[in-house]
Design brief:
Keywords: DNA-binding, Transcription, Transcription regulation. Homodimer. This is Pur operon repressor. Pfam families: Pribosyltran, PuR_N. The chain has 279 residues and is α/β, with parallel strands linked by helices. It folds into 2 domains: 69 residues, Winged helix-like DNA-binding domain superfamily/Winged helix DNA-binding domain (Arc Repressor Mutant, subunit A); 201 residues, Rossmann fold, CATH 3.40.50. Helix content is 35%, strand content 26%. The protein is built from 9 helices and 10 strands. The strands form 3 sheets. A 6-stranded mixed β-sheet has the order 4-3-7-8-9-10, sandwiched between helices. Strands 1-2 form a two-stranded antiparallel ribbon. The protein has a two-stranded antiparallel ribbon with strand order 5-6. Helix 1 crosses helix 3, helix 2 packs across helix 3 and helix 6 packs across helix 7. The radius of gyration is 21 Å and the shape is globular. The termini are far apart. The mean pLDDT is 92.
């Protein structure tokens, strides 16, 4: 690669690191790439590190030694996350989201890449310090959120199917109970989708009592896998605590009430922001 001015090199290095989060990059890679001395590269990285940390958008870790290098850990400050969540709550409270039966329309929000990327950054920040091998969700609406989170953590995404696909090969299937009617459903996961004993981050777009997510937890037990964390975009606050099947999770928004007659929707911040709002 041709030599670049320092300003251009800083931009290119930043873009390179952003596209490879949680990946150890040797200093020699940058030195060879730009035809620059390691000391110059180290100075550049110190500038990038300072900007990331001042803006609250990431942490640049430096590992010393022959096998060392730098690794970018994307992060989103609580203040930036709070601004995102407040906007999410405002959009969720739009009266025209109410569907027959009191359901809430979310597909337009889940279809916005920029919004899902921000949510993915929040989950990546919340679970950055945990050892995770894969991100998991159940088809279909949780897929954009899972891929956004996987991209920020630089991890593969595993999709749990509601109906087994022949193209998935042999699979493990279980029954689980979900919905207000306590109806019985089936979910399956290809045996090739994930290694045994993996540590899994589960993400989903919506959680009521937690039956679907608990189903995924039970499915992981068949793979001798471990749940490393659970992230939910929106949780229902209308469920009594004793009725909830899952208690260890983070949410970004809490749907507290839906009144179909008055077309009023009440949404508050999710439990991820509890500490911040209590200050």
């Amino acid at each position: 690669m041709k030599k670049l001015k320092r300003s251009s090199r800083l931009v290119e290095m930043t873009q390179f690191l952003l596209s490879r989060p949680h990946t150890l990059v040797p200093l020699t890679h940058f030195a060879d790439r730009y035809g620059a001395a390691k000391s110059s590269i180290s100075e550049d990285l110190a500038i990038i590190k300072e900007v990331f940390e001042d803006e609250g958008t990431g942490e640049l870790l430096t590992l010393a030694g022959a096998a060392g290098g730098v690794k970018l850990i994307p992060r989103l400050s609580k203040q930036h996350a709070l601004a995102f969540a407040n906007d999410l709550c405002a959009q969720l409270e739009q009266p025209d989201r109410i569907l027959p039966g009191g359901y809430l329309y979310l597909s337009d929000l889940l279809g916005q890449p920029a919004m899902m990327n921000e949510a993915g950054k929040i989950f990546a920040t919340a679970f950055a310090d945990r050892q995770i091998d894969v991100v998991m969700t159940v088809e279909t609406k949780g897929i954009p959120l899972a891929y956004a989170t996987g991209a920020q953590l630089n991890l593969p995404v595993v999709l749990v199917r509601r109906d087994h696909q022949v193209t998935e090969g042999s699979a493990v299937s279980i029954n689980y109970v979900s919905g207000s009617q306590k109806s019985l459903h089936t979910m399956s996961l290809s045996r090739r989708a994930m290694r045994e004993k993996s540590r899994v981050l589960i993400v989903d777009d919506f959680m009521k009592a937690g039956g679907t997510i608990q189903g995924m937890v039970d499915l992981l037990a068949e793979f001798d896998a471990e749940v490393a964390g659970v992230g939910v975009l929106v949780e229902s606050g209308e469920v009594e605590n004793e009725e909830r099947l899952l208690h260890d999770y983070i949410s970004l928004a809490n749907l507290t009430a839906v009144d179909s007659r008055s077309k009023q929707i009440t949404v508050k911040l999710g439990n991820y922001f509890d500490e911040l709002t209590e200050q």
